[in-house]
Amino acid sequence: MPSLIRGEPKPLTLEELIASFSTLKIEPAPPEIENTPPPPCPIANLPDELLVPILQDVAVADVGDFARLSLVCKHFAFLVATEQRPWKRVCLGSEFGFTSMPRHWQKSIEWEDLEIQEEADEDGLLISMRELEERRLADAVSFTLSLHDPDVYPSWKHMFRNRPRIRFNGCYISTVNYVRSGQASTNQSTWGGAPVLIVTYYRYLRFFRDGTVISLLTTASPVDVVHHLTPELLLLHREAPHSHLPSAVMHQAYKGRWRQSSALDHPDNTDPQDQESDIYVETEGVGTKYMYRMDLTLRSAGKGTKNNKIVWRGFHSYNKLTDDWAEFQLKNDKPFFFSRVKSYGIGEPAKEL
User: Fold this and answer.
1) What pLDDT score does 38 carry?
2) Are 281 and 294 within 8 A, CB to CB?
3) What is the value of pTM for the model shown?
4) Which residues, 6+ apart, have CB-to-CB distance to 119 below 8 Å?
5) CA–CA separation, 85 vs 92, rounded Å?
6) Could you tell me which of 191, 163, 183, 190 has the C-alpha nearest to residue 87?
7) Residues 6+ positions from 221 with CB-CB distance below 8 Å
8) Average pLDDT, integer, range 309-323
9) Judging by beta carbons within 10 Å of its beta carbon (0-12, 13-18, 19+), is residue 125 exposed, middle or buried?
10) Given a cut of 90, is residue 303 above it in pLDDT?
11) For the residues 84-91, what does the mean pLDDT come to?
C-alpha cells in the first residue's frame, strides 16, 4: 500500500492545470437524439483572434460576467486566465478600472464644480478645469502602464485583482451592534436587574466616478435603503417639503466628496499598494457650519475577494466658523463591507478615455 501511494501522480497546480487547457477547443453540445448531427455551434469555429475581442466587450460591459465565462468550458477558462488584452482594457478603462479613481478633489462637498481656473502649469499660466482633468487622466493612464511590472503587478489580471480601487456597482455598508442598559420599570420587578437593549444601526457609503459620494446613517436595514441611494432621490428629498415614501430614508442622507490617496499623500512610502490604499471622504454635517471628514483604508476580507472592505482610520467634525476640529470616538463603529446592487449596473455612465 505505501508503494502505491508513493507511485500516485502529484496533483497539478492551478497554473499547470490552466496550461493543460491551452490545446483544448470549444466543444459543441452533444446531439439531442442519438446518431443525429449535433446542433450548430458557430463560436466553436472562431479563432482566438476573433474570440478575444468578443470577450473584451463582455469584460467592458461587466467584468464579473467576463470572469464567470471561465465556468463555461476549459478553453474559455484558459482565455480568461491567460489572455491579457481584456484585463488591460478593464484596467485602463473608466468602467471598472483605475482611471476613474480620483486622486484629487473634483467636486465640492455640495457637489458643485470647482473653480474654472484652479492651478497653474509649469509656465505659471492658469489652466482650465477641463484641461487639468485631461492632464490628470493622461497621468493616471501613464502611471497605470508603469505599474505593469514583474516586481509590482506581473500581469494585468493581477493588477485588477490586487491594486486598491473603489467599486461603483454597489455600496459599502457598516453594520453596528452594541448593547446598552435600559431603564428598569418602577411598576414591576425585572429579573436580573435593568433590561438590556441591543441597538443596531447602519452606515452606508456609495461612491461615484465624478468624485462625489452619498453618506447615510440610519437604523433602516439594507433591503430598505440600497435601492434608494441615488443622487436623484437625495435631491428630491432635499428640495421637497415632505418626505416621499418608500424612499423617505434619503431625507437623512448627506452629500459629500471623496478621493483616493497617491504618492503625494505618502511621500516616504515607496510601495504603490500602500500609497493608494487610503480613502478620504468629506461630507456635510449637522447644520451648515459643520463638515465631517472620514479617513478610511481599503482592505480585503476573504480569500477570493479583493477590495471589499473599508476600515476606519479616523472620523472628525470640522467647525467652519471657529476653525476647530473634533474627533469622534469610534468605539462601536465597524468596518464597511461591499455589497453589490444589481440595479446600479456599472455605477453610472462611463467617461470616455
Assistant:
1) 84
2) yes
3) 0.84
4) 126, 127, 132
5) 11
6) 163
7) 202
8) 94
9) exposed
10) no
11) 95
What pLDDT does 350 receive?
43
The predicted pLDDT at position 298 comes to: 95
Q: What is the tens place of the pLDDT at every residue in 194-245? A: 677 788 899 999 999 999 999 999 999 999 999 999 999 999 888 776 766 7
Cβ–Cβ under 8 Å, residues 316 and 301: no
Q: What gap in Å lies between CA 234 and CA 237, rounded to an integer?
A: 5
pLDDT of amino acid 241: 67
Residue type, 9: P
Cβ atoms < 10 Å from Cβ of 168: 19
Q: Which of 347, 286, 350, 294 is nearest to 319 (CA)?
A: 286
